[in-house]
Write a structure and sequence with these properties.
Structural class: alpha+beta
Distance between the termini: 52 Å
Radius of gyration: 43 Å
Strand order of the largest sheet: 3-4-5-7-6
Strand content: 5-15%
Number of strands: 7
């Protein structure tokens, strides 16, 4: 059978809607005052089943007794049957035992009351709230009581008919309790699952945010670190040559302007991911807007990168093997950033009089090799050791493609950086995300 959904026309039917609304209000009141519903149940049972026994008497078959019993005895039996129901939800097994014990006393006195309906209520409560391992014993006890009551019945019904109706009532009590229990367990399971999914969604969101911030920080480090190193070196050289070689000083200023303009464009592209849409200032230069909208750098931009580093002083030799320019844009961006960071470290630590060689090799087995070697500072001075954020950033970038980065001093002097990228084992989703414009 198709389950009902909130869009089902039955839910919009006025009587059904009123019943659902009443059920919600009742559950809300029960959560606020859990004793109120149990008290109302006991009072309703006393009025419905206990009061007729006291007012009508045995002559009309309301109270069936063969031994003389005073009125207060009947009242005591009724209270013994119904008052334990106040704790039917907190201690269902104990309540059933108490009610069944009073029923046995009543049977021993040869008395039968309408308040015996408390036995069915206690059985329902045990199926609804109690331990299931106690339910089997309770059902066996109720079955024995039903057989005894069917044999003792004095109304004009055969014992088999009486047994059928009493067994039907007991079965309905157990089935109702178990059915409601299963429904609530299912709803609580759905609620718990929804809560866990919400927590997992928040965790995934926080992890994605942290990963994106790390990626942006890495991009910022590469952009700012490299371009500022080039600008500072050019500025120092230009200031030194201002009196001796004014023409070279003018060229240094032009290179500083171009490097700064490129760094500004890359920074704007990187910071654009922090807002939903990029707004450009009125009156911005056309070349600045073109820089903002240009694609992320790749293999083809390594020549310009090496040229900027050469302008700062180091002698940089750049060569490629294979077809690295045919790689995915995300791979090309990673290659560019690793080479940029390696050249920046060379410029920082080896100085302007060093010689560096950058080699990009695209192997046939879908491996990409990036190698940078420099001769070190002039005079053979040792380069600073240790690993800063730059090498860690290169390793993080290489890890996106299952690669590694090795950096350290060369045997003959200087420094070398070796990076290996495995481009064939990277999922397309990761490649596309890496290739996104930052």
């Amino acid at each position: 059978m198709r389950p009902l959904t909130p869009e089902d026309p039955l839910w919009g039917h006025p009587p059904i809607a009123r019943l659902v609304d009443a059920g919600r209000r009742l559950r809300r009141a029960d959560r606020q005052r859990p004793w109120l519903l149990d008290t109302a149940l006991v009072l309703a049972a006393l009025l419905t089943f206990g009061l007729p026994d006291l007012l009508v008497g045995a002559s009309h078959g309301s109270v069936i007794r063969t031994a003389a019993i005073p009125l207060y005895g009947i009242v005591a039996l009724q209270l013994g049957l119904l008052l334990p129901l106040l704790w039917r939800r907190s201690a269902p097994s104990a309540v059933f035992a108490a009610v069944f014990g009073v029923y046995l006393v009543e049977t021993a006195l040869d008395v039968s009351l309408h308040s015996n309906v408390a036995l069915l209520i206690a059985l329902y409560s045990l199926a609804r709230h109690g331990r299931l391992k106690h339910l089997g014993f309770a059902c066996a006890a109720v079955l024995a009581a039903i057989v005894l009551a069917a044999v003792r019945v004095t109304i004009p019904l055969s014992p088999l008919v009486a047994l059928f109706f009493l067994c039907s009532a007991a079965t309905a009590a157990v089935a109702s309790g178990l059915g409601i229990r299963l429904c609530w367990a299912y709803l609580l399971g759905l609620k718990d699952r929804a809560a866990r999914l919400e927590v997992e969604r928040d965790q995934r969101s926080r992890l994605a945010t942290a990963a994106e911030r790390t990626r942006i920080a890495r991009e910022m480090h590469d952009i700012v670190g490299h371009n500022l190193s080039v600008v500072i070196t050019l500025a120092d050289g230009g200031a030194h040559a201002a009196t001796t070689a004014p023409e070279w000083s003018r060229q240094a200023l032009q290179l500083i302007a171009g490097t700064s303009r490129q760094a500004l464009g890359e920074l704007r592209r990187t910071l654009a991911v922090l807002r939903e849409e990029t707004e450009y200032a009125d009156g911005a230069a056309d070349e600045e807007e073109a820089a903002d909208l240009s694609p992320q750098p790749g293999i083809a931009d390594l020549d310009a990168l090496c040229e900027r580093v050469r302008a700062a002083g180091p002698q940089v030799t750049y060569r490629t093997a294979g077809r690295p320019d045919a790689l995915d844009p995300g791979v090309q961006l990673t290659v560019y950033r690793i080479a940029q960071e390696a050249l920046t470290n060379t410029l920082k630590h080896a100085g302007t009089d060093t010689r560096a060689q950058l080699t990009i090799t695209a192997a046939d087995d879908a491996e990409l090799h990036i190698r940078l070697e420099d001769t070190g500072p002039a005079g053979g001075l040792p380069q600073p050791g240790g690993e800063g954020h730059g090498i860690a950033g290169m390793r993080e970038r290489a890890a996106l493609y299952g690669g590694t980065v090795t950096a350290g001093p060369r045997p003959g002097g200087g420094w070398s950086v070796d990076a290996v990228l495995h481009t064939a084992t990277v999922p397309a989703s990761r490649l596309s995300r890496t290739a996104e414009a930052s």
